[in-house]
Design a protein that fits this description.
Layout lengths: L1 E8 L4 H16 L5 E8 L11 E4 L7 H10 L5 E5 L3 E3 L3 H10 L4 E5 L14 E3 L11 E5 H6 L12 H12 L3 E11 L3 H5 L4 H7 L3 H16 L1
Parallel strand pairs: 1-2, 1-4, 2-3, 6-9
Antiparallel strand pairs: 4-8, 5-9, 6-8, 7-9
Amino acid sequence: MTYDVIILSYSKTKQHKQITLDCIKSLVDAKNRIKINIIVLESYDASVNFKNTKTIFYQQEKFNYNHSMNYGFSLTNSDYVFFCNNDLIFSDGWADACYHVFKMGYDSLSPYCSASHPRFTRTGDYLVSGYQVGFHVSGWCIGVDRKMFKRIGGFNEAVRFWYSDNLYAEQLKIEGVKHALVCNSLVLHLDMGSKTLQTVPNRERASLTSVQRRIYEKEVRRLWNAKR
């Protein structure tokens, strides 16, 4: 069994590049029975080639998070695919615990982060079902069953950055797909994305964040109306 893991990278500075390097190292070093195939989408430096990965330079005129992830998915072959920020640290057994939950009938899941999910103690195969964004649906790391993801048409690309995971949660609810937070799969989210965002010019940053709310709300209404 192999997982394809897609990581978005932005190597504007040595610090930004190091974040991706640390993420890759943790993936390679983590002890799992599941094999990991790493695909890095680098959006800033075309000369970068990360060791132990398939590194693809993929730059858009206007960045769209979900579009990047959908492109990454087109490069995969495994039955299970993970979509990841680069500011993650993976622990031993994270992949095996997720596989157990997939086999329980969940077609979408997120691993547990000790910083972002302090309300729960990780014990055994404990998991929590739901669609709450930032909790059950952790946009920084989402694992999917390949067939399910293709059936729902991939990630909705109506928004560019903020609310990307919110739209995915709505897609899951509309299609009746079960999602779970896997509490014995530990993947630490360092939350460096906000620092990366500070390097973006103010007008562009606004277009990636606050402006997206109106687009998200309009798209959610459209999706649910289409379902009726």
